[in-house]
What we know:
Layout: E1 7-12, H1 20-33, E2 37-41, H2 44-49, E3 53-55, H3 83-95, E4 100-105, H4 107-120, E5 124-128, H5 144-165, E6 168-173, H6 180-189, E7 193-195, H7 203-215, E8 221-226, H8 234-244, E9 250-254, H9 266-284, E10 290-295, E11 298-303, H10 304-309, H11 316-326
Parallel strand pairs: 1-2, 1-4, 4-5, 5-10, 6-8, 6-9, 7-8
Antiparallel strand pairs: 2-3, 10-11
Amino acid sequence: MSNTIKHIGVLTSGGDAPGMNAAIRSVVRTSIFNKREVTGIQQGYCGLIDNKFVSLQSHSVSKIISLGGTFLKSSRCPIFQTPEGRAQAIDNVRKAGIDALVVIGGDGSFRGAHLLSQEFGFPVVGVPATIDNDIYGTDFTIGFDTALNTAVQAIDKLRDTADSHNLVFFVEVMGRDAGFIALHSSIATGAEATLVPEFQTDIKKLCAYLEWERRKNKTSGIVIVAEGGEQGGAVEIAQKVKEILPEYDTRVTTLGHIQRGGSPSCHDRVLASILGYSAVSALLEGKTDVMIGQKNGQIVYTPFVEACSRHNKINKKWHEISYILSL
């Protein structure tokens, strides 16, 4: 255990994800258990620059494990991207007596964390929290499971309406430029088709498939569209299909930011708790400039440079399984 770190700061940055509060709670209570002081930084990296520091005790994080979002708040911070902004941030941190940071967020947040570590030699570790599940170095990111379950529940409800009115629903889910939510929710809901950025979308083939389905007396359908595809989102895909199949009665539903909210699932609460504990342990063991992840049930450390330059890849076999099970 490192004796040089007496005071740990924790912040959440970038897009919110269910389970962030559980991770904060874990960082706070693990720090206190190890007799370290802990401070919460509000509004992400902007809080470092604006001195938005709040001392956290065990009771400060009581009953937040079930809450979505982040009680420390989050924000984008363009000024932090400048050398002057980072210098101000690290000066404020040191004046506050903070010896190390835990950054909870996605790859953009980790790029900032890496710069603090490289430019100033400041100890920083990251905890991956994003619904997109696209960060390299961990099987799952905090928030993905909850977002996925939100999507599945919504798609199940849309299926009832599609069946009742012989409709084809084009449902857009989030994921930035990754198809994890789309692919997993497709398998879970039995969707007729899945369009993800990792595979090229052929509108003519999609239409031929929908017609083949119709000839099998399938009078309704669900097409799940991941945002970020080269052919556009659900609105654009539906319009292109309608041009080829004008007789089809189509509807578009964009689930949007509803996927980022809500009480975190059991999986996300447990994952966040384990990663938060492991982040503090890593700092006390002298580790820095790394992201804490979990692969095959084991804690692993991935350098920020690698975590930010590579992306998780969806399992191609799962894409094939999704297609086979839709037939």
